[in-house]
Structure formats: C-alpha cells, structure tokens
Amino acid sequence: MTLVEMLTRCPRAHDPERGAEAVASLPTLQKESVDLIRGTAGSSPYLAGLITKEATWVPEALETPEAALAAEIAAARTAPSEGIAGALRRGKRRVALLTALADLGGAWPLAKVTGALTDFADAACHSALRAGLAVQIKRGKLPGKTEDDLEDAAGMCVLAMGKMGAGELNYSSDIDLICLFDETRFDPEDFHDARASFVRATRAMAATLSEMTAEGYVFRTDLRLRPDPAVTPVCIAMEAAERYYESLGRTWERAAYIKARVAAGDSLAGNRFLRDLSPFVWRKHLDFAAIQDAHDMRLAIREHKGLGGPITLPGHNMKLGRGGIREIEFFTQTRQLIAGGRDPDLRTRGTVESLQALAQKGWVETEMADTLADHYTAHRTVEHRLQMVQDAQTHSLPNSDAGFDRLACLMDCEVADLKADLSERLAAVHEMTEGFFAPAQPQDRTPHLLDEEMLTRWLSYPALRSERSREIFRRLRPDLLARLAQSSRPEEALVAFDGFLRGLPAGVQLFSLLEANPQLTDLLIDVTGTSPELAQYLSRNAGVFDAVIAGDFFTDWPGQSGLERLLRQRLDAEADYEARLDATRRWSKEWHFRVGVHLLRGLITPAAAATQYADIARAVLSVLWPLVIDQFARRHGPPPGRGAVVLGMGSLGAGHLNAGSDLDLIVIYDPLDHDMSEGEKPLSTRPYYARLTQALITALTAPMAQGRLFEVDMRLRPSGNQGPVATSWASFQSYQAEEAWVWEHLALTRATVVAGPPDLAEDVEMFRREVIALQRITAGVVAEVAQMRARIQAAKPPTSLWDAKIGPGRLQEIELLAQAGALLQGDSSGQTEAGLLAAVASGLLDDAQGRELTQLHAFYARVHQVARLLSDKPLDAQTLGPAGRSFLLRALEEETMQCLEDRLTAYYTRSAAILDAALALPDPETGAP
After folding, report:
1. How far apart are CA 129 and CA 157, in angstroms?
2. How high is the pLDDT of residue 26?
3. Residues 433/295, Cβ–Cβ less than 8 Å
4. Does the pLDDT of residue 764 top 60, yes or no?
5. Who has greater pLDDT, 292 or 874?
C-alpha cells in the first residue's frame, strides 16, 4: 500500500512558494502525493531541505513506505566501518523524512512513528559500536579479543534509556545511553586495559552518532545518565555500576531504569545486569514515598527551567511545563514505582502501555488512564511538529502569531481550534496530575485533641526523627486527628495510636502510604484501638498495609491451593534461597494480617479465621518444603529413596489454628534400600534426613529481616525429644505398632500429611487410618485419658477466666475426650465434632451431653481465637481498651462484660462436670464410677 493510500489528513503550506519548489524538485512524483509534499515542505524548512537532498529516493519511498523503512534500518545495522558516518547520516535523513510524511499525513499512528525512529537508533548504535570496537581489537588494545568477539561486542553493552528505551523517540531527541562492560570476561590483571579500550570505543561510537558534519548528524548522544558521571568514565564495569545503585542510587535513577533496555552489544550480559538491578528499581513494598521524590523532582525542574508560572500558550513548554508531557510520564512512572515491585505486570516501558497496565490492575481509573493516554498522544504529536520545523530540540510553543499559524498548518487545523485544544488539554493534565503529587492540605480541625506534651513526645519517637518523616506527618496529622475525633472514644483511640506510633521504627513509607490512601487511616485507628497485639505487630510490619490496597484484600478466600499458587508466584520472582525465605515471611504476614483484620471487622467468623490461619500454614509448608530440599540437595544430593513427608499434628493437622499458633510437626522419610545420598558431600541416610529436617526448622524459625515464620514443636515424634528429629518410615510403623503410648495414638487422630511426595504421603495416611481403626478396650483408653487430664491439671492451671484452652472443662480437655472417642470408633477425620459423636457411640457420653459439649467446644474455640487476636499474652479484661471490649462482646454475642464472665464461669463448670462423669475411673472394688 502506498503512503498516499494510507493518508487520513494532509498538512497545509504555510509558505506556498517553498512548497512549490519542493514539488518541482521531484519530477517523477505521482500527482496524488503533490499536496502532501507541498504542505510538508511549505511548513517545514527542515523537511523541505530533506526532500531536495533525497529527491531521487522520495518517489519510490512513497510507493512502498514499509519496505523503504525496513531497508534503511537494515542498511544502518549492517553499515561497514569504512564510510559509516556518511551511511548513517543518509539513513537518518531518509527515516526522518519518511516518518515525518507518514506522521503529518496520519498514515502511521504515533507509536509506529516513534517506533521507527527508535528502531533506526538501535541499528545505528549497533553499527557505530561495532566500528568503534573493531578499531580497538585490530590494534590489539582489547586483551584477548579477536574479530569473532565483535558478535557480542566483547562483553560491552549499550543500554537505551528514556524515550529510546521505551521505543518513544521523537524527531529531535537526544538518545540517552549508558555503556557498560562485563568485567568477568577479562582476567583481573587485564581489567584496566579493557576498560580503557571500551572507553575509547564508546567515545568513537558517540562521535560517529553525534558529530555535526556537512551531511548533518545521526543522533545527539547523551552519556550522562551513568552512575556519578562527573567522576566515572563513559563506559564502566557492570559490577561497579551495580554497587553504585545499591548504595547510592536515587529515586530518579530508579525511574530512569523503568524504561531501560539493551539497544546494542552483549544482550545476554546486559539483560543479566538489568535483572540483577531489579531489586533496586522495584521495591518489595508499596513505595508511596516515591510520590514525594517525584514531586520534588517536578518542582526542581520547574524552578531550574523557570516554568513555574500559570499555563499561557505563547512559549509554553509542552514537555516540562504545567500540564505537559513530563507530568504524564512522572505520574505513570511513579505509580509503577509504587506497585511494580509487587506486580511484574506493571514493569512496562511505554507510557501509554503502562497507563493501560495500571488501569487493568486497578491502580488508575480506566477513564483517567484513557484520558491521559489521549492527552499524551496529542502532546507528543504537537511536540513532533514543533521539532519538524527546523530539526531543533525544542518543546516550546511559538511566541508569535506566525509561529502558531505554521503549527496549525502542520496540524491541518485552524489556529483558533488548535489553541483551544491545547489550553483544554494542558489544563486537564495539570488538574489530574497535580492532585496526585500535591494533594490539597486539610486544615487542622481538632487542635484540642492533641496536647503539647503528647506532640513533643511524638517528635521523639524513632518514626519521627527524620525531617522527611516529620514533614509528611505534618501534612497527615490534621486528617488523622479528625478521624480519631470521630471515633466513639477519641481519647482512648489517641492513647492507642500513641502506643502504635511509639513502636514504629521508621515512618516515611507508612506515612506516605497513609497520605496517598486516607481510607487506610480508619483501618489503622480500628486496629490500634481494638487489638494491642495486632497494633504491635503492625508497628513492626507496616509493610503488610501493602496487601490492603493491592486489590484482593477483601476478595473471596482463595483456599489452600490458591494460596500455594500465589506464594509460588511470589517466590518465582526471587533470585536466591534466602530471598525466598524472606519473601515467604513477608507473604505470610500479609495474609495473617488480612485474616486478623477480617475477623476484627466481623467479615469472617472466628471459626473461619481458624481455617484460614491453617490454610496459610499448610500452604507455606507445601511450598517451602521442596525449596528446602532443593537447597539442601545442592551440597548433599537429592533425597535418597522416596524422600520425606511432613506430618502436621495437633491443631495444624485438624486444620484449625489461631493468630499465634505454633506448628506441631513430624518428619517421616523412606530411604528404601539406599544407604547414602549422591552429591558433592554425600551423607548416610539417617544424618541426611536429620539435617534436612533441621534445615526445615531453620527455614521456619530463623529470625530474618522479615522476622520468623512460625515456632515449631517436634515433641510429638516417636520417643519425643529423646528420639531422632526425623523418623524413618520403617521405624515409624514399628514404633506405632509396638511401642507407642495411648496418647501418641490419640495424637494420630488429628494428624495430616501437609507436604512431601504423594506416594509416601498416601502410605502414611493409610497406615494412620489402620492404627486408628485397631480394636481397643474402652476402659483402658478412658483410664489413660483420665490420667493425662489429671497430669495436665496439676502441671498447667488456667491463667485466667479468659484462658479457654487449658483448665477443667475447657478446649484441651474436650478435645482429649473427642480423640478418645475417635480412637475407640476408628474415626480418622481429625475433627472434634466427629470425635464427640464417636464418644457418644462409645458410651462415654449420652446424646444430650454430646450435643452440649459440641456447642461448648465451639464457643470456647471462638473465645480462644478472639483472645489470641487481641493479645499474645493471657487476656486481661481489666486492661482491655473500650474498642477491644466491644470487639470481644460482638464476636461472642454478649451484651456486657459481666454477662460474658458469668457465662464463661457457668459453661466451664458445666463442661467440667460432663467430662468428670465421662472420664470417671471405676471403683476397683465395686466397679462403679
């Protein structure tokens, strides 16, 4: 298809005489193309000159524009070193002219125009770099390298930054490049010679591209985006660059690397560098502090360029001025920096593409994203026409009526319509982006709530010691105090918030997040006022707030399988084992926080919370166990035999945990006939699995940057603490069949395999059911359980009325009876309700007692779940705040604390009496209980 056939508009000639001269220079021009050439040349002296210079090429290019573009890019990529400067300049003229004609005529959309310019820039960089390196290799200046190494530039790469990196080059763009080399390709003693050669090659490349000759230039080349450009050479080692960014990198450099890509040279090394730099660019938490950094950059640019005034069209800078291109780019990139660390789908380069991704993930409203994308396209179109006039690196609107008339001719519109459209678009962009970067400051409406003494104390807290955190908190404080004042008990809410703030180790990130998301302040006040335990946890792990605004905090519960999938996705983005362990901790905390908040706000019941806490723990074990094995196998080889399973015991096995539950685990392995592992440092099977189990315990319990995952209790394994930490499959079967105590068989009624190979898991489960199904004498089991109950009562008296777990008639005792019933009836479900039904079937309870104990157990479980959310220590109702008491009463469906205490006392007495009767030992003489 010819270019003319694709036209949707046509520029007008501002200078008809110049336009006619250009048409006359093309005697073979098809008449259908005359208006396009006349309008283009008549409004752009620069393009008129290109038309004249390329008069023999233009007619053919207009006939087959796609082929003409592809040919010029291919020629640039394969340009020989000899005569490369002239060849690239000729190619640039042609590509610039062809894209201008396609753009002015509406034949190509903006993305194709900027993409064509970028593709040519990539090709030009490739051949210019190759030519520069060829000289160094030919002279023997690059140690150990030959012409064969030119294929991957001998380990050097050129990163395209900014608009070139995003594929968005405009007509008169500089190209921003960072040049690096892979120092690992050279012996240490050759490092300095290699670096010197790469520096010379870089300078030769830049000269080839940017020097002005009689034939013009290719691209102005800017190498100043490299680390510390005032003191570093123009090409630096990748390791040095990485060290700089890790220690000294700033937010603007993070934003710059959003668009970075390898344009020329060693793509493998360059892409590896970008992957290694990813943690610097993309923070693991939601980085709302980036908003202030970006706003500071905007203000600095305005001040430096003198662009801080109101929007007036004459001379207005379409790139850097208010409502301009940079405002949209800053808005988009800042949103990406905020959330891109958690969502790789947001790590896109193009501005329009990135706005679409942000809208799809809910970070920007779809209408706003579409509107900004439309304004961005319109702004870039105007910018292109400003630069087409004289090939000048300008972004400013004309200062004269004649200048606006020329611009309107290139835009194919009337001046009045052009000015109206520009004014409307600039104002709209400014309004949309200014509110994001600099929201209106609320007035302090509740000064009486915060006395001078508390304010002074706040300023001494670690979270408010830096000037930056104080500044953000100063802006946040009026809204915070207003929301505190609206709570039912403002003074108590303020005291609770004071306790939270006192424990907060740093404030910038959290305060920035609250400032950008005011709705989170209500949740924070709710949490701090209700649950001191959750508030303390939140002060140490404020990053869990990320999950609240990540879009799925209030969606349906994904279940264990869904959690496993989400955790695997999170860990796939981590580079090494320790990073994965830390990421698992962060992930687990976020989901624990969600469960706690949902329970706190009445979105789920305590029973649902128990299941969800267990789902989290099981998902962690299921995903983490293979990672631990893989890491261990690197030194000692893969697990000999069939591997090992992790058996969840107690509440984990039953699928009911609370906010602070430990994990009761047993590891069972089956080596088959293997005596040793096969690896770099082989181990015999018993120490192999013992050390592998210890590695799992460490993975779960080790204090890392994100804290611990869970505390682990292995005492339920055969022979308890005296036995090996991991048990062989044969030993486990033998022990359970010949040596196990009744209480160990009771524990098996709630066991579940939570991780490990399916075949071994199936065997363990089948054996567990066989053990539970064995015939037993009722009196013997009852006697054992009664003795266990007596020992526990003697060793662990209840800490208070609110300790619903341990004490006469409470959770632990009811569950013991349920396990006894399950063992007598062969019930392997692990559920207390089923165990109590089994106790009825065994004659330990009558029907009414069974129903009553089931109801009492459910109530105690609610009490225990709620109490553990409120505090990790024994609950003290006297020190519980008003919000905490309100939550306790709401969750337990009671009117007053006194009524609740009376109810608990009566219930404990009743359930203890039922258990006394069920577990009464017969009189040795009469046989009566």
Report:
1. 9
2. 92
3. no
4. yes
5. 874
pTM of the entire structure?
0.67
| Bridge partners (DSSP) listed for residue 849 | none
Under a CB-based contact definition with an 8 Å cutoff, are residues 59 and 28 in contact?
yes
C-alpha radius of gyration, the chain, whole number = 36
Please report how the helices 351-360 and 325-339 are oriented relative to each other, as an axis angle in degrees rounded to 10.
50
Please compute, for residue 760, the number of CA atoms within 13 A of its CA located in the half-sphere on the CB side: 23
**Around 86, how many Cα atoms within 13 Å sit in the side-chain half-sphere?**
3
Q: What is the mean pLDDT of the chain?
A: 88
Q: Which two tokens stand for residue 599?
A: 């329970």
CB 57 within 8 A of CB 90: no
**pLDDT tens-digit readout, 434-451:** 876 655 455 444 445 555
Q: What is the pLDDT of residue 492?
A: 64
Could you tell me whether strands 235-237 and 175-181 are parallel, antiparallel, or unpaired per DSSP bridges?
A: parallel
Q: Could you identify the residue written with the tokens 């003191």?
A: 231
pLDDT digits (tens, 9 = 90+) for 567-597: 999 898 887 899 899 999 988 988 988 898 8
Distance CA 601, CA 696 (A): 35
**CA–CA distance, 411 with 185 (Å, rounded to integer):** 52
- Which one has a higher pLDDT value, 250 or 130? 130
498/464 Cα distance (integer angstroms): 12
Report in angstroms the alpha-carbon separations of 515 from 143, 292, 465, 507: 55, 10, 18, 12
Contact 62, 3 (CB under 8 A): yes
Residue 98 Cα distances to 95, 116, 198, angstroms: 5, 10, 34
Question: Which of 787, 745, 739, 752 lies closest to 770, judged by CA?
Answer: 745
Which tens digit of pLDDT belongs to each residue from 411-433? 999 999 999 999 999 999 998 88
Ramachandran area for residue 115 (φ above 0: left; ψ -120 to 50: alpha; else beta): alpha
Residues 6+ apart with CB under 8 A from 372: 328, 331, 332, 355, 364, 429, 432
Report CA-CA distances (Å) from 380 to 323, 373, 387: 13, 11, 11
DSSP-derived letter for residue 317 is B
In the predicted structure, residue 265 carries a pLDDT above the cut 60 = yes
618-645 pLDDT, tens per residue? Answer: 999 999 999 999 999 999 999 999 999 9
Name the residue among 252, 255, 174 with its Cα closest to residue 218.
174
Q: How far apart are CA 811 and CA 103, in angstroms?
A: 76
Nearest to 891 by CA among 617, 608, 614: 608
Instruction: Give the 3-state secondary structure percentages of the chain, helix then strand then coil, rounded to 5.
Output: 65, 5, 30
Instruction: Using alpha carbons, select from 620, 625, 601, 598 the residue that is nearest to residue 610.
Output: 598
Q: How confident is the model at residue 304 (pLDDT cuts 50, 70, 90)?
A: very low
Q: Are 168 and 114 in contact (CB under 8 A)?
A: yes
**Whole-angstrom Cα distance, residue 26 to residue 56?**
7
Specify the pLDDT at position 927: 47
Average pLDDT on 38-53 reads 95
626 CB-side CA count, 13 A: 12
Q: HSE, CB side, 13 Å, CA atoms: give it for residue 91.
A: 31
What single string gives the DSSP state of each residue in 218-262? S--EE-TTSSSTTTS-SEEEHHHHHHHHHHH--HHHHHHHHS-EE
CA-CA distance, 175 to 182, in Å (whole number)?
22
DSSP track, 768-816: HHHHHTS---HHHHHHHHHHHHHHHHHH---SSTT--SSSTTSHHHHHH
User: Is 292 within 8 Å of 512 (Cβ atoms)?
Assistant: yes
Angle, CA of 758, 762 and 766, to the nearest 5° = 170
- Facing residues of 707 across strands? 704
The token pair that represents 489 in the structure block? 């008990």
Cα 253–chain centre separation: 19
Q: Which residue, 737, 751, 738, 646, is CA-closest to 689?
A: 646
Q: Residue 857: in which H helix or E strand, if any? A: helix 847-870
